[in-house]
Write a structure and sequence with these properties.
There is one protein chain. By secondary structure, the chain is mainly alpha-helical. Helices cover about 15% and strands about 0% of the residues. It contains four helices and no strands. The longest helix has 5 residues. The N and C termini lie far apart (about 55 Å).
């Protein structure tokens, strides 16, 4: 069995963290033929990706560094930000939050209510 080595542009990064390089993330305006920044745009303008709707699996894993990749490089969700770009709400332990219904005498969980 012959194993082929992945190109350097698809190798896992030494830090293990996904890349967050805007120049490798597809410009959504370019993909809709409406980018007004042209060559000054900080996002990727790929004619090949424009014709190809398949997302790059290596990009989705955070390992593709190929600026000329023929697959799409969509923006990846950032778990520390909400969909509006604001910091995400902190995770709250439900057991530390008083039950509204229990405090008003109407919780159906009874003594199992946190």
């Amino acid at each position: 069995v012959q194993h082929t080595r992945l190109p350097d542009s698809h190798q896992p990064r030494k830090s293990g963290k996904p890349m967050e390089d805007k120049s490798l993330t597809d410009c959504i305006f370019f993909l809709s033929s409406s980018c007004k920044n042209g060559d000054r745009c900080e996002f990727r303008h790929s004619g090949d990706a424009l014709k190809n709707f398949t997302p790059c699996t290596f990009w989705m894993r955070g390992t593709c560094t190929n600026a000329f990749c023929r697959f799409r490089h969509p923006a990846r969700p950032n778990p520390t930000k909400s969909s509006y770009g604001a910091p995400a709400a902190p995770k709250v332990d439900p057991s530390s939050t008083p039950c509204f219904f229990y405090s008003n005498g109407g919780c159906t969980k009874g003594t199992a209510c946190p």
